[in-house]
Write a structure and sequence with these properties.
This protein has 446 residues and is mainly α. 65% of the residues lie in helices and 5% in strands.
Length: 446
């Protein structure tokens, strides 16, 4: 306990780190306040705002989790940062698949600024489409009595709400960029994580109340669920930090007719991550799975066929298709971001080699083979993590609490916490303080 308080004192004594933490907390506070500001035209005394009102379930419930409850609150920030993420993913794919975009990306800062600007424009378009669907969703709930829309707002409720939602998403995007530039951690990830964590206490309370009720299973079942959740988090940390180390040697260099070891001649390792793709395969898979749901966004409950199946993450067909997509996207994204041939050329240029493997083409093939072997179990484990919320729902876990048993929410939350702690530890070590852990260093996703 004494070391814990000393670490807190050390963190607070570093002015740069302290300013970043306070700046990030201030912007997060502004974001959380914004999630409770209701869209103009909706009465705050609507039944949807009463305690105990049922939240959206399925993929809409997951969307609500990412938005920190703003989705079900009919907030001006209801769509959150997700349209910006969708636009960013699309632009990232174009830089990989379109040669002109690849050339633009290689132009340096000017190219990146153009791509970022186009991403913002695309964000507005995506938000407009999602905003129109969300307005229809609100009007559908209003017809059932969940929301009350003032009659004097009815004529222009569509236009005003879409404009407000676009402004809200752009504001959240601006907050994320400010956190990225002047705060602590990745701004977009911090915004999503804060939204997820904001729903955690309420999910715990709902699950606890459900289990202590009659026929709920009792306190023992609740404790077992918490224990399983802890085990899943530990396994997820192992997945994020797991690496396969390939031993490297560096050849001796002739300097002035004498043979000597270069400065980097000490035996080193090439770390290959088990899950090099991170959370991107799950995000890609959910984006595709969400499309059929978006088609019938306004009538989720009465939807039939594929749209109905894709709106229920506990459906067996949904879990099978979802798992296949996650595994496929894991291999695809890993192949896009990790080039064995480039690594082999870099090793050859620096006189490095893998013992027992010839430099050049043989090294590239060997690294590619190792990458394929460790990517498969990583992809399967990632797919299992992705469908765990659906499995938890099938075993009677409440919808809000089941989202924390795996999937994107838990993966992002654990990864962002590790990244943030890694940055804090780096700052401590730079200022010659002890790190956060006495044994080993904290490893983030990068």
């Amino acid at each position: 306990m004494k070391k814990y308080f000393q670490t807190i004192i050390n963190i607070w004594s570093i002015k740069d780190l302290r300013d970043k933490i306070l700046y990030t907390l201030a912007l997060v506070f502004i974001y959380r306040v914004g999630t409770h500001v209701v869209i103009p035209g909706i009465a705050t005394n609507s039944p949807a705002f009463l305690p105990g009102h049922k939240d959206a379930e399925g993929l809409l419930g997951l969307f609500n989790t990412f938005a920190g409850g703003a989705f079900s609150n009919a907030s001006i920030l209801a769509l959150g940062i997700m349209p910006y993420i969708s636009a960013s993913i699309f632009m990232q794919l174009t830089t990989i698949l379109i040669p002109q975009m690849q050339k633009l990306q290689k132009e340096g800062d000017s190219g990146r600024k153009k791509i970022n600007q186009w991403t913002r424009y695309l964000t507005i378009i995506v938000t407009a489409f999602q905003g129109a669907a969300y307005v229809t969703y609100l009007k559908n709930l209003a017809s059932k009595g969940d929301y009350v829309i003032y009659s004097n707002f009815e004529p222009y409720f569509w236009v005003s709400t879409i404009i407000v939602l676009i402004a809200g998403t752009l504001f959240v995007m601006w907050l994320a960029e400010r956190i990225q530039d002047n705060g602590l951690g990745n701004g977009t990830s911090i915004i999503i994580t804060v939204g997820i964590l904001a729903r955690l206490p309420q999910a715990f309370i709902q699950e606890f109340q459900a289990k202590i009720n009659k026929n709920g299973g009792g306190m023992i079942i609740f404790i077992v669920e918490i224990a399983i959740l802890i085990v899943i988090v530990l396994a997820l940390i192992m997945l994020i930090q797991g690496v396969r180390k390939l031993m490297l040697n560096y050849a001796k260099q002739l300097v002035g007719g004498a043979s000597r070891q270069p400065l980097n001649a000490a035996r080193q390792y090439l770390p290959i991550k088990i899950n090099a793709a991170g959370v991107m395969p799950i995000i890609f898979a959910q984006a595709i799975m969400f499309l059929p749901t978006l088609v019938s966004f306004t009538k989720i409950e009465s939807g039939q066929g594929i749209a109905r199946m894709f709106s229920d993450h506990s459906n067996m067909g949904y879990m099978i298709v979802y798992s296949i997509l996650v595994i496929g996207f894991t291999f695809l994204y890993t192949a896009l971001i990790f080039n064995p041939r480039q690594v082999a050329e870099e090793l050859k240029r620096n006189n490095g080699f893998i013992p027992g493997v010839k430099p050049g083409e043989d090294t590239a093939n060997f690294i590619g083979m190792i990458m394929d072997r460790i990517t498969l179990p990583g992809a399967v484990f990632l797919a299992i993590i992705g469908i765990l919320p659906g499995i938890a729902s099938r075993f009677g876990v409440t919808s809000s609490f089941s989202t924390f048993f795996g999937g994107t929410s838990l993966l992002i939350m654990v990864g962002v916490v590790l990244d943030t702690l890694q940055q804090i530890e780096t700052q401590l070590l730079m200022h010659k303080y002890d790190g956060l852990m006495s044994a080993g260093k904290i490893q983030g996703r990068n």
